[in-house]
Design goal:
This protein has 411 residues and is an alpha/beta fold. It folds into two domains: 3-63 and 361-405, Urease, subunit C, domain 1 (Roll); 65-354, TIM Barrel (Alpha-Beta Barrel). 35% of the residues lie in helices and 23% in strands. The protein has 15 helices and 15 strands. Strands 5-6-7-8-9-10-11-12 form an eight-stranded parallel sheet. Helix 8 packs parallel to helix 9. It is globular and about 65 Å long. The two termini are 38 Å apart. The structure holds N-(iminomethyl)-L-glutamic acid and fe (iii) ion.
Length: 411
């Protein structure tokens, strides 16, 4: 049964050109049928009568948001580490002292699948309320075959239990687990010989990520892992140049990764190499802010180098305990130099590319019927007003999954 979304003051198709980068259509309407968009245009030009309608009340409509970098599934709390950092400790010092990722690994290994699901569900329902309809989620808190598979199975179960689509990424190379202390190369062999083949057999991940950093993995180890992942049919992602210049951007370019994330320490040569191989630069301003880092990434310099920039939360219990993609978008403007238009592209169209998807992140006939409807008639309220969530309604796969009647904007 088709449905007409009408009374849209501004439709941001995210499918524009240099003159109209967001592809804005004023006084627009959209027809959806089942899970797909079938027509997009001005309300005056609706081509046939559609019995069922949804009134967007003169608000903005944009694609369902895509959070292309999250560590959604975890147990335990790292609030003590936040307090330690407030007293002057750094993220690396905490990691070297055995805290950090290994702290969450312990809690996540102890948790059952059911407990991990229960912990993730409220996080997902908050994300949905911000208009997020697709996310990427990484493993990396299991760090053993059984626990990494457990995390992927949790993501599979969550995909059946709630509306947000989760794209699962295998991040076995997130940290060196205690069983392999001082034997990083043996752990890399284990990832390549045991973990990746099992993941391939079960078909439960779409991408593979590596954390290239001092104290984590070298770019050479990352290359071995990502070559094996590619051969197993997974696409590649890299945590690159977050805390030091360690070669993650070089690696992402070598394997033509979907994305390189963080990039605080990326050089001009790195940017050129990434642009040449069409790697999306994923910036994670909530992580920078949360760790109190002074090195805010200059996303402007990425755009000047010809890169497409995506913006994500990096939601995780250590460096970014914040699942609010609106906040990441706001900080990408105030701290990283993006324009509001670029930030919106960063949480829709470019974020979709960063997870290897072209069926979401834009509003166009043939794409998925994923939308968010704002209670404001002006998209800049999402950036301007830090007090309110401007999302009034959310559609996923053509289904209305959120509808909140709250305050309207402006005076
Ligand atoms: O993206 N940098 C590595 N991984 C995460 C942090 C994970 C954690 O601290 O638990 C990140 O910042
Ligand atoms: Fe991350």
């Amino acid at each position: 049964m088709p449905l007409l979304l009408r009374n849209i003051e501004k439709l941001l198709t995210m499918n524009g050109d240099a003159q109209n980068p967001l592809g804005v259509i004023q006084n627009a309407a959209v027809i959806i049928d089942g899970k797909s968009i079938v027509w997009v245009g001005k309300e005056d030009h609706v081509p046939y009568v559609v019995a069922e309608t949804f009134d967007c009340l003169g608000g903005v409509v944009m694609p369902g948001l895509v959070d292309c970098h999250t560590h959604l599934v975890f147990a335990g709390s790292r609030r003590d580490e936040f307090v330690l950092r407030a007293q002057g400790a750094t993220y690396q010092e905490i990691m070297q002292a055995g805290g950090g990722i290994l702290n969450t690994m312990q809690a996540t290994r102890w948790a059952t699948k059911e407990e991990l699901i229960e912990l993730a569900l409220p996080r997902l329902s908050r994300m949905l309320s911000y208009g997020v309809t697709t996310i990427e989620a990484k493993t990396g808190y299991g760090l053993s075959l059984i626990d990494e598979l457990k995390m992927l199975e949790v993501m599979g179960a969550l995909n059946q239990l709630q509306p947000i689509q989760i794209c699962p990424t295998f991040l076995g190379a997130h940290a060196i687990p205690p069983e392999y202390k001082n034997r990083a190369d043996d752990y890399v062999d284990h990832i390549i010989d045991e973990m990746i083949p099992q993941i391939k057999t079960q078909g439960i991940a779409t991408s593979c990520d590596v954390f290239v950093e001092r104290g984590a993995f070298t770019k050479e180890q990352g290359l071995r892992i990502l070559c094996a992942a590619k051969a197993a049919g997974l696409s590649c992602k890299v945590h690159a140049e977050q805390l030091s210049h360690s070669g993650g951007a070089w690696l992402a370019a070598q394997v033509s990764a979907l994305s390189a994330s963080h990039l605080e320490y990326a050089t001009d040569d790195d940017k050129k190499a990434l642009a040449k191989t069409h790697v999306i630069a994923e910036i994670l301003p909530t992580a920078q802010e949360y760790l109190g880092l002074s090195t805010a990434v200059s996303a402007r310099s990425f755009i000047d180098a010809g890169l497409k920039v995506a913006v994500a939360t990096d939601f995780n219990p250590g460096s970014a305990m914040c699942d609010n993609l609106h906040w990441a978008a706001r900080l990408s403007v105030t701290r990283c130099g993006l324009s509001c238009e670029e930030a919106l592209l960063g949480i829709t169209r470019h974020a979709a590319k960063s997870v290897g998807r072209d069926d979401v992140g834009v509003i166009q006939a043939g794409k998925k019927a994923d939308f968010c409807v704002l209670s404001s008639d002006n998209p800049w309220d999402l950036f301007y007003d830090w007090s309110l969530n401007p999302v009034r309604a959310v559609f996923k796969n053509g289904q209305e999954v959120v509808n909140v009647h709250h305050l309207t904007f402006g005076s």
